[in-house]
């Protein structure tokens, strides 16, 4: 019969799934420690790259075993009839959090994470550059104006907890200030040094 | 929310003006960042050269370190084996002039770099493919000897012979009709060799009963051989969702990856 070639696959979303995704044991956590590390690395890489591709910010345990979820293409491979269980996804979430690639959101539960395909520090820089390049320094902006700007930006649809974290980081270097108001929070950006 | 933009004609005009000023701005930003990037890259290349000459010994001695160093070179577009001099940039930096020895280094790099995936046993064809990819030579499988500049099987065999005195334990092993390069210093036990041969003949996926029947062994012996490969050698992966058996083993070195 000779060897079997594991192929990459273009998913309906246009994302190119790596050949490891067509490898049935990829969906079974490996007992040998070194193999497992390599497997974990590949899952983490796949999840983050897919999230970046589709601009997905959250991954939850309920995304497993569910058709029609945003994550279906990754967590299920119909072509080889393999899927990750909820428990396996929970383990992946733990790993993402332990590696600093995600954070539990909301805190104090382990079913759902906010993914850091960009770290909060990088988001802070993106946010600040955007404020500078669109001439928004020194004026008060609402979070809504950042999340749904008239011209779509890299920050469109950024979840509020992540936006807050990015602003917090800018606050520490005096490049932003939170303005609290009854109608919802706002922020003012400064050029900084 | 009094700050949100209005929807009147003024807002439309402002929107148009916005677009224009973004365009001008983005142009100047792109130019600036390109200039800055070039300066950074030059600087980085210089630093890399300094790093290579001061860590020459480590790079030569430690294959994992060397693999990482090489990866660093590749990620910024420096091919350590390319260059104006014979033997290339690498030779200049590290004083390794001999083409054969350099190929040896690349063989070690590929073998070490893929060890986690294949347990230290790589198919000759896969090795050739990766070596030629590393060297940036496009070559069709099996057409190495007719492609100018491509590394051929004979080159690899000769290089492995050159590596022998170093005690690196690189060896060619014949499994069925295929040649494998083994890079782990370990005796390949007979049972494992048999499993590899069976896996090769069925396309990589095996389970205890199948191995037992093909080899004429009791099932326990097949289980032991497979578990050894799984846990001790890392040369296969287990799958618990296969309908054919509760534990199915995929022998990595028999598979091809796109």
UniProtKB/TrEMBL annotation, chain A:
Pfam families linked: ESCRT-II
Superkingdom in the source lineage: Eukaryota
Swiss-Prot/TrEMBL GO biological process terms: protein transport to vacuole involved in ubiquitin-dependent protein catabolic process via the multivesicular body sorting pathway
Gene Ontology cellular-component annotations: ESCRT II complex
Keyword terms, alphabetized: Protein transport, Transport
One GO MF term: protein homodimerization activity
Record family assignment: Belongs to the VPS25 family.
Official protein name in the record: Vacuolar protein-sorting-associated protein 25
Organism: Serendipita indica (strain DSM 11827)
Lineage of origin: Eukaryota, Fungi, Dikarya, Basidiomycota, Agaricomycotina
From TrEMBL, chain B:
Pfam families registered for this protein in UniProt: EAP30
Superkingdom as given in the UniProt entry: Eukaryota
SUPFAM superfamilies: Winged helix' DNA-binding domain
One GO CC annotation: ESCRT II complex
InterPro entries documented for this protein: ESCRT-2_cplx_Snf8 (IPR016689), Snf8/Vps36 (IPR040608), WH-like_DNA-bd_sf (IPR036388), WH_DNA-bd_sf (IPR036390)
GO BP annotation list: protein transport to vacuole involved in ubiquitin-dependent protein catabolic process via the multivesicular body sorting pathway
Family note: Belongs to the SNF8 family.
Entry protein name: Related to SNF8-protein involved in glucose derepression
């Amino acid at each position: 019969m000779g060897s079997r070639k594991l192929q990459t696959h273009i998913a309906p979303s246009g994302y190119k799934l790596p050949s490891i995704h067509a490898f049935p044991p990829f969906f079974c956590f490996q007992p040998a420690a070194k193999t497992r590390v390599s497997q974990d690395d590949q899952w983490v890489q796949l999840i983050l790259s897919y999230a970046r591709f589709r601009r997905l910010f959250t991954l939850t345990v309920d995304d497993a075993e569910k058709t029609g979820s945003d994550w279906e293409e990754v967590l299920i491979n119909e072509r080889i009839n393999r899927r990750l269980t909820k428990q396996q996804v929970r383990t992946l979430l733990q790993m993402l959090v332990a590696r600093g690639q995600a954070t539990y959101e909301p805190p104090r539960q382990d079913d759902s994470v906010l993914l850091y395909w960009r770290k909060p520090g990088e988001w802070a820089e993106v946010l600040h550059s955007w404020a500078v390049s669109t001439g928004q320094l020194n004026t008060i902006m609402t979070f809504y104006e950042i999340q749904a700007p008239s011209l779509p930006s890299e920050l469109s649809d950024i979840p509020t907890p992540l936006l807050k974290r990015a602003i917090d980081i800018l606050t520490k270097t005096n490049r932003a200030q939170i303005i609290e108001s009854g109608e919802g929070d706002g922020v003012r950006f400064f050029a900084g040094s | 929310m009094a700050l949100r933009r209005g929807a009147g004609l003024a807002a439309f005009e402002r929107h148009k003006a916005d677009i224009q000023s973004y365009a001008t701005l983005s142009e100047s930003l792109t130019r600036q960042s390109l200039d800055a990037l070039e300066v950074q890259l030059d600087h980085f290349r210089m630093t890399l050269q300094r790093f290579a000459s001061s860590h020459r010994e480590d790079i030569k001695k430690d294959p994992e370190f060397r693999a990482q160093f090489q990866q660093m070179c590749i990620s910024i577009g420096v091919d350590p084996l390319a260059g104006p001099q014979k033997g290339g940039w690498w030779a200049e930096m590290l004083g390794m002039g001999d083409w054969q020895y350099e190929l040896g280094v690349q063989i070690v790099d590929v073998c070490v770099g893929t060890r986690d995936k294949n347990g230290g046993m790589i198919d000759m064809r896969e090795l050739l493919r990766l070596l030629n990819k590393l060297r940036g030579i496009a070559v069709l499988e099996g057409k190495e000897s007719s492609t100018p500049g491509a590394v051929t099987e004979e080159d690899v065999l000769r290089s492995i012979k050159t590596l022998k005195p170093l005690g690196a334990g690189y060896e060619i092993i014949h499994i069925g009709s295929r040649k494998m390069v083994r890079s782990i210093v370990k005796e390949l036990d007979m049972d494992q060799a048999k499993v590899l041969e069976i896996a090769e003949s069925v396309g990589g996926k095996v389970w205890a009963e199948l191995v037992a029947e093909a080899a004429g062994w009791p099932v326990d012996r097949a289980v032991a051989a497979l578990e050894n490969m799984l846990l001790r050698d890392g040369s296969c992966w287990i799958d618990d969702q296969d309908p054919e058996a509760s534990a199915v083993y995929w022998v990595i070195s028999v598979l091809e990856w796109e």
